[in-house]
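Q: Here's a chain of 169 amino acids. Please give me its 3D structure as tokens.
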Amino acid sequence: MQGDSLEAMEADLNQLAQDLGQLLSQKKLTVVTAESCTGGWIAKTITDVAGSSEWFERGYVTYSDVAKRDMLQVADTVLAIDGAVSQATALAMALGAKNNSPADCVVAVTGIAGPDGGTFEKPVGTVWIAWIINDKNDATCFRFTGDRESVRRQSVAAALEGIRERLVS
């Protein structure tokens, strides 16, 4: 039973990635990812789609604060004042990915997948996702529930859906 539901969830993510790929191909756009709590899962989901090299430019996995600084130029002050899981960090990650890539669209994810690491202000399941699409940027805070894998899976889905929504609006 559980295997069936996991297979269904993987199929849903794959369908999201395929749909996004078709939309990006039609618009002749490319995407870059900057991931922390998802650990490259967004990029993996995208590159599971045959032909994704046409619209996937690159991905950054910046799990540590050092990686966020080194690879995406997230400022020490942002990390110190706002923390790794914040709107400011998600937007800085997105901007860093945009500045280090020729891609047209960016998605950045940072969060607390658990089971540890949460606080009262930022409980487990808190995930910030930022997008830069057509030079417009925005970020949304999500409060996902479930275990670590569930939080991460929901983050991947929200990230992909967010790109699509912003491209069609």
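Q: Can you summarize the key feature?
A: The chain has a mean pLDDT of 95.
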